[in-house]
Design brief:
single chain, 401 residues, alpha/beta, five-stranded parallel beta sheet, two-stranded antiparallel sheet, globular
Length: 401
């Protein structure tokens, strides 16, 4: 694509930026669009992955058919098969009638599966069958259905690492990865950051009759040097908050206001490696879950997830070995050794840390749900995790009682 064509594409889909990696991702999307290749879009949360499947659909032969987007992480595990593939009347409690699934609804068009890494193993197997043969079964039915759907999937987790951990099917991973598009993080697009900030504050100011916000050179440097873990989504929230709290109504004298670094510093975190923004607001001390608690939860989920999974596998292996040992012994001599015979001090310390993390996460989840009146979606957004993760933790908590 030449420069003019690329700019027209950005204008059409409201994409801001001139970064080379961003341009490359857009060019690949246009190049693969006329084919039926399955596409996997990867990138951190908030980078704008949802633009890619829309571009692919609009430049494909399916552009006049349906385009459906599904957030796999927001659907409870118990209903996701019915949501994707449909169900027959009476197939489960609450199935009062036959229902079409997304694969049937999107037949002939494009189906965007976001947060594909959150799919349960059973659903992964059903998805693999659809990708290979276009066939699927509705929940509660033995009749094979056919569909012709173009799949574009997206993930903000390392699927290859999930394959190594046994959480994602290897055959499905390679099937999805026929064409891969990587969306760069915002910290990799430093020259685009101020362009995006000006766009967001300009749109917000125009909507509410406020002066546009610009930044001094020192404030721009601060804006670019922050690593933006929430990427474009986080930047937009900050830009709108800054405009709402620092700007004034447009007057005949001025339609713009400039902020210096000292003023702007209130709206971004002091620590460069923090995981969540600390936007200053009058209500920041008004109870609820503190920013420190949120950061602790997210750090626990991100930094210690691998260690937790590894520990769980070790425990399962040891339990399996103990069961075999018990089966091989008879009479009073049949005995399972205590954990102290199998774990050294370092391993027990790791297990204790794991339990502490789970308790802390559970407590904060309870606080979030209580704060939002049991609304799972709002609680998940506040904690920075998917709705599916919340449902899974609630199920684990209920099971442990």
């Amino acid at each position: 694509m030449d420069t003019q064509e690329l700019q027209r594409l950005k204008n059409k889909f409201d994409i801001i930026g001139n970064d080379a990696a961003l341009n490359n991702a857009l060019e690949i999307a246009v190049a693969v669009a006329p084919t039926d290749l399955t596409v996997l879009v990867s990138g951190e949360s908030g980078v704008g992955k949802e633009n890619i499947p829309q571009i692919i659909h609009q430049f494909s032969r399916r552009k006049n058919a349906k385009y459906l987007a599904v957030n796999c992480g927001a659907i409870p595990e118990g209903t996701i098969n019915a949501e994707l593939f449909g169900h027959e009347k009476g197939s489960f409690t609450g199935a009062i009638g036959e229902r079409k699934g997304y694969f049937e609804e999107a037949n002939g068009g494009t189906l965007f599966l976001d947060e594909i890494g959150e799919l349960p193993k059973e659903t992964q197997a059903m998805l693999l069958r659809v990708l290979q043969s276009g066939e699927y079964l509705k929940v509660g039915s033995s009749r094979v259905e056919k569909t012709d759907v173009r799949i574009v999937a997206a993930t903000n987790v390392n699927l290859y690492h999930a394959v190594q951990q046994g959480r994602f099917r290897e055959d499905l991973y390679y099937r999805l990865n026929a064409a891969r598009i990587v969306m760069p993080s915002l910290r990799e697009r430093k020259e685009d950051i101020y362009l995006l900030f000006r766009k967001f504050t300009s749109d917000f100011a125009q909507k509410y009759g406020l002066r546009k916000v610009s930044l001094s050179l020192d404030a721009i440097s601060m804006l670019k040097n922050y690593r933006w873990p929430g990427n474009v989504r986080q930047l937009k929230n900050v830009a709108e908050t800054v405009t709402a709290l620092e700007s004034r109504p447009v007057s005949s004298e001025s339609d713009r206001i400039e902020l210096d670094a000292r003023t702007f510093a209130k709206y971004i975190p002091d620590e460069k490696d923090t995981l969540l923004p600390q936007i200053a607001s009058p209500s920041s001390q008004s109870g609820g879950i503190s920013d420190d608690d949120k950061r602790m939860v997210v750090k626990a989920l991100l930094d210690l997830k691998n260690e937790v999974d590894s520990l769980q596998r070790r425990v399962e292996e040891l339990e399996g070995g103990a069961t075999k040992q018990l089966s091989a012994q008879t009479g009073d001599s049949a005995r399972i050794d205590t954990p102290s015979a199998s774990y050294d001090d370092a391993e027990w310390q790791e297990q204790a840390e794991d339990l502490s993390i789970k308790k802390t996460t559970g407590d904060l989840l309870d606080k979030a749900l209580e704060k939002h009146g049991g609304n799972v979606k709002e609680a998940a957004q506040e904690l920075g995790i998917s709705e599916r993760t919340v449902y899974r933790r609630l199920a684990e908590k209920k099971k442990s009682k």
